[in-house]
Structures
1.
Amino acid sequence: MKIRPRILRQSEALRDMVAETILTPADFIAPLFVVEGEGIEEEISSLPGYFRRSLDLTIREVELLWSMGVKSVLIFIKCRDELKDNEGTEALNPDGLMQRSIRAVKQAVPKMCVMTDVALDPFSSYGHDGIVENNIIVNDKTIEVLAQMSVSHAEAGADFVAPSDMMDGRVNAIRMALEANEFANTGIMSYSAKYASCFYGPFRDALDSAPGFGDKKTYQMNPANRLEALRESLLDVEEGADMVMVKPALAYLDIIREVKNSVQVPVTAYHVSGEYAMIKAASMQGWLDEERAILETTLSIKRAGADLIATYFVKDLVKLIS
Ligand code: PBG
């Protein structure tokens, strides 16, 4: 034999030297779930080990994340039921929980890149990402609200807005609104290829945001489709997205790679709540080695082409790779 690939695998030193993919804390985006109140830290039952926190404790968490080398957080809020309506009015409240959270996090850790979820579902009495008329999620009225919502987040200090709604033309509408309001430096991380997935279940428990009727298949993508993901991603880049996203991650590694090969902006992958729950559940049963499962899964997402990874395992990962 003249060629022996095992030579490169024979010691830890060699394996480290030739590793093609390396995870660093700057790769990760930490999702945060904020609730009203003080001193609150509630474990989310379908996301064991992950918490909803009031703003005071959220700030402590962001300080901790920053000290660990994490550079970005993605804020979600749990809107009180009585504030929900069809138009997502509360989403535009300058003193709403989201806007207060952005201000407080930016004030506590100014260097942290603060990203915010932009979609109507947490604020919608129907639990849909857009405005509902005659059981239809209407597009063009919704993107007007999303654009105003983005400006409101930028006003509060958000560095990036992350539209997760999958309406047509929303990136363009948001970019125009940011420009018109002199927020030229606010970035857009667009959920470009977001699939209608069963893996968002625990997230919807966390925010009590499950759709009240029907499903999200008229706006989120069919898991069967690949070309459509490229079309959506290229469109978002054309409309002015600074980063695109594929979501979920693990069941869509092929899509991450194809999007990565097709766009010239950073690609984010969202390792979503249900994907986290699967690893947790199997580990709690003793069926998987949790640490190895977290590392292998996250490495595979980066290897597939993700420049950034939104994941509920951020703190575990930073410990595991350091
Ligand atoms: C809201 C939104 C969802 C997620 C992120 N933003 C849920 C949904 O679209 O129903 C899911 C994240 C996760 O499951 O971890 N539009």
2.
Amino acid sequence: MKTIGILTSGGDAPGMNPAIRAIVRAGIFNGFRIMGIRQGYSGLIDGDIYEMNLSSVADIIHRGGTMLRSARSDEFKTESGFKKALNVLDVFGIDSLIVLGGDGTLRGAKDLYNAGVPTIGIPCTIDNDCGYSDYTIGFFTAVETVVDAISKIRDTSTSHGRANVIEVMGRRCGDIALYAGLAGGAESIIIPEVEFDIDEVCKRAIQGKNRGKLHHIIVLAEGVGNAYEVAKDIQDKTSIDTRVTVLGYIQRGGNPTSYDRILASKMGNRAIELLLEGKSGRALGVKCNEIIDLEINEALDIEKKFNLDMYNTSKILSI
Ligand code: ATP
């Protein structure tokens, strides 16, 4: 019987749990032995590993976070840490590995594959910063959380006639800001991919005010800069009372949306199918609503393309 290890690493993302569930259930259904590795690469180095059964993943499809817990491990990036990880896989008889996480985590999976471990990578990060896949597991749940927050802030913004700068996550990727900004009807979206002009933001606020708008929502991606400085500039230049909300970690938590649960279930099942077909060194993704798999070395070299059309649409609709 072949033994598959699973780990979740880097920032947790809503949808990791349904993906773990899919891997365990599809794996056992197909006759594999499944080992859960706790706390990402750090737990792999420490041998924090246990055998999972069908009940191990009961009652988790709807839960955020990751039941296997997550960690960032600098030791894994060292030669000695990496060797320890390889040795632990050997000791526990793990023949292949399914790794769930963001870009850094998938680079770790690539290194393991290049060192001879049959590995499959599944992109799980709220940032949606993966160039080879349209979406990553967790992204749309984070967008829902931000849209919900925008709607609530818009209510109070309207009542007081204020502007609000809402800072969202995404590291150097503006997708959370872009998608949530469009869905939430934000007047301005400030993202790292498009050069930002404070005078234009202010002009839009003044224009909106002059035509009777009571609120002005500015969604700012964390990769751009300091939300408090942006808010101060807007207030100084427009005299509109401007407040700041930094949404922070609420964007990483919460029950995964149906879309993320379905994506996670399909990718988890597909990872097992690939191993059954004798394939590894693959990174799973989604393109035009189809689950795809690419050679992991090539996949991680594909640059993330920014959706400029969507950005321009949001600008037109929020005049
Ligand atoms: P998120 O984008 O949600 O933060 P992530 O997977 O990108 O998730 P990282 O902290 O970048 O998060 O990576 C998680 C772990 O993966 C690191 O702590 C490290 O152990 C490993 N890792 C990161 N980058 C590399 C790399 N270039 N090569 C090998 N391993 C890496």
